[in-house]
Amino acid sequence: MRSVGIVGGGQLGRMLIQAGIDLDLHVKVLDAKPDSPCAGIAHEFVVGSVREAESIESFAEGVEILTIELEDVSVEGLLRAAAKGVEVYPAPQVLSVIQDKGRQRAWYASQGFPSPRFQLWMPGETVEIPFPLIQKAFQGGYDGKGVQRAPSAERLWQKPSLLEEEISIYKELSVIVARSKQGEVRAFPVVESVFHPEAHVVEFLRVPAEIPSHVEKEAREIAMQMAVSLNIIGLLAVEFFYSTSGQLYVNEAAPRPHNTGHITIKACWTSQFEQHWRALLGLPLGETRLHSYGALLNILGPVEKSGKVRFPKLTEWLEVPGVSVHLYGKRFSKPFRKLGHIIILAESPQELLQRVGQVRSNLSIEIVPFEMDETFS
Ligand code: ADP
């Protein structure tokens, strides 16, 4: 039994555990929250901060391979683990580029990957990108937080940030790539994302993406080249903008499993989670082909209220043919929190849309108020 460690205990970790069990891995997980989605199902669950070098260093003791399920972790901690002989994927140096949107953007541009025009901006400097532009905090942003559309100079946040030309987006696409220790590289089919208009979290995905075949090919090739030039071992999820004028731009990348890749669990011959372990263990990578038309709906916490969560429509969801439900084990709901996802398979695009419509009409969940002695996490 090989011993692996995952830094972060959210739903991505939970699904990595599910896939790891099939390969008889011994999985240890680190997360600050004792009730995180991995608690109770990891072989070992350690409560500790993923942002503190010391906790990662001591967590990694006795672990053969260490990986992450979120980017916002202590790079110093990963470096210390690597110095003690633990195999760390992705390499900590890659993570330090990706943790900073400015460094990440500058790196892509330097490697010739198609990028929006950009500027690494300090307050007081002349703005070289025409308004309206997109302003992004260098660090800490996710799911659209730390990103704004600035219509004029007065509306800019006065903090160091990445400024980007506003792309006229036709579709947002993503490609999950795996690169193994042996150097084998495989890309999954392009996933098309439909975003929630307010929250900027993915609400609805589908495969295959409705795009011309040359765009599908180009996106997969760019993503594979990125994995090679970043020297990734494991997964790299690359997000793209496909513009109204037919151009592809790299938005950003994450060296880990990705929400848009969950659809591979049911729609592809191999899931992203199994592929990650295959890559890390130096095993042959699995077939990435689709065997069905697939869609994915995220089950998100409602905007109006927080509280304990119930899924009273589970029966209605599962009545639809081709549906599988994946609940993340989060006891509490917060606005837009990802609580689970529903995968829908079909044999034709028409059948898929009809089934998506059926599930969407019943997507509601129930929020039960907290009781006096309950704490919210
Ligand atoms: P996060 O990492 O928080 O998801 P992103 O950089 O992906 O942040 O930006 C969030 C959203 O903002 C994107 O999904 C896209 O809809 C929009 N966006 C980001 N950059 C641009 C851009 N250069 N042009 C147009 N829209 C953009």
Describe the overall structure:
This protein has 377 residues and is an alpha+beta fold. Helix content is 25%, strand content 30%. It folds into three domains: 2-89, Rossmann fold (3-Layer(aba) Sandwich); 117-164, no CATH class; 169-368, D-amino Acid Aminotransferase, Chain A, domain 1 (2-Layer Sandwich), CATH 3.30.470. Helix 1 (11-22) packs across helix 8, helix 2 (53-59) packs parallel to helix 3 and helix 3 runs antiparallel to helix 4. The mean pLDDT is 94. It has helices spanning 11-22, 53-59, 75-83, 92-98, 101-110, 213-229, 264-267, 272-281, 314-319, 349-360, and strands spanning 3-7, 26-31, 44-47, 65-68, 87-89, 118-121, 133-137, 147-150, 161-165, 169-179, 185-187, 191-195, 202-207, 234-243, 248-254, 293-300, 307-310, 323-327, 332-333, 338-346, 366-368. The chain has ten helices and 21 strands. Strands 10, 11, 12, 13, 14, 15, 16, 18 and 20 form a nine-stranded antiparallel sheet that branches. It binds adenosine-5'-diphosphate (ADP). The site of adenosine-5'-diphosphate (ADP) has 18 residues, from strand 7, strand 10 and strand 15.
